[in-house]
Write a structure and sequence with these properties.
Number of strands of chain A: 0
Structural class of chain A: mainly alpha
Largest sheet of chain A: none
Strand content of chain A: under 5%
Oligomer: homodimer
Number of domains of chain A: 1
Distance between the termini of chain A: 32 Å
CATH architecture of chain A: Up-down Bundle
């Protein structure tokens, strides 16, 4: 990435530290993105081994959050950053919290997937989860991309994808309720699918939060809870 | 509160700023606690006006988060705090994120409550939500109390209350599934109760997170994701 994201520091070491933090966030983001993909695939394909792998790897996500958080606190203490450097560190502290929670939601989807392997598969092969999963993967991928490039206009555009996810989610829920009422024997399975859909919808919210931190970093102002970007959590 | 929570600063003004931040977090906590109480009451008693009041007041919670966040960033920039002062500011930044999300969950409970006023009330008067609501209110109240006193041992004890909430939540869910299977006409209502129960369970998780930030502040180490305290989100 270009040098001009950060201010000119007397200390090259400080530049290297900020760059290192940024790279670690992107590495964490990559792992979380893979977790989401794998969780949806495990559920859709009834792959118990893959579901178990996702559940197992959540520890790695957690460990990354703690390590980056620690590094940020040390940078705050030692370097006493100001202006955009400070906003970067604050944005990172918030971003990793959302990434960690995306990891938790992916783990939940994987748990539902593992649970669902024990019962007969529906004819539609969980198409609603696959579809929602694709939308959610895309917003997460785009959010990580704008974080990497630190572009506020692109970040704003990505936040708008969340509205579509919310609409798809609502439609999925209505359909599942209809199934349950038509055939009460599908209630338990439908509930598992609902929880998975809910977890995916929340991943969309977290991805949107990450975009808001990018805007905060670039613009130097907090856009949360404004009309520009309204968050659903 | 006692002076000795903070280090001795040359600047009395700095002490006053930290004290002000702490007081504002407690004010925000008080509002959020009231929102949770009102949301559960509105749902349990079918009080549409109260539900609408909760939904309306969520803006106040959001505004408080943004204002405290801004104040913390300014303190980091101007005062360049170190050691326990720095940990306090970081703990506050994280705590207000959880408080804001508790506010969101309270709003969700209120929305379910408003929705449920349109359909006949069950014989049990939503006893499961009332019961879960009491447990969740208690853990939140206790979490805010340990935040006010900054006591790590008490914080550790409060985190343990969350396991009981999780058990009650699981029992509630199982019971609601049974109702749905026995009488599919109750499916829609049961789903609303489930979403409300889920929101309450998540408030318990956020309260636990706040306790973990208190431990981080006092002990100077991060206890998240350790065996001591395992978080469910």
């Amino acid at each position: 990435m270009s040098e001009n994201l950060f201010g000119q520091h007397i200390s090259k070491q400080f530049n290297a530290e900020l760059e290192d933090i940024r790279n670690r966030v992107l590495t964490m983001g990559g792992l979380v993105e893979q977790q989401v993909l794998d969780a949806v695939k495990a559920l859709a394909e009834g792959d118990l081994l893959l579901a178990e792998k996702v559940i197992e790897r959540d520890h790695e996500v957690n460990a990354m959050e703690v390590a980056i958080d620690e590094e940020c606190t040390q940078v705050l203490a030692r370097r006493q950053p100001a202006a955009s450097d400070l906003r970067l560190v604050v944005a990172v502290i918030k971003t990793i919290t959302d990434l960690e929670r995306i990891g938790d939601q992916a783990e939940k989807v994987a748990r539902m997937g593992a649970h669902l392997t024990k019962i007969p598969r529906p004819e539609n092969q969980y198409i609603e989860i696959q579809h929602l999963g694709e939308l959610v993967h895309r917003i997460l991928h785009n959010a990580l991309d704008v974080f990497a490039r630190m572009e506020s206009q692109a970040a704003l555009e990505v936040t708008q994808e969340d509205a579509r996810i919310d609409r798809e989610y609502e439609a999925t829920m209505r359909q599942l309720v209809t199934f349950m009422m038509e055939d009460p024997r599908t209630i338990k399975r439908s509930l598992d699918i609902m929880w998975a859909a809910r977890a995916l919808e929340r991943i969309g919210d977290h991805a949107k939060n990450i975009c808001e931190y990018v805007i905060y970093f670039v613009e130097g102002k907090d856009v949360r809870h404004t009309e520009l970007v309204t968050r659903r959590d």
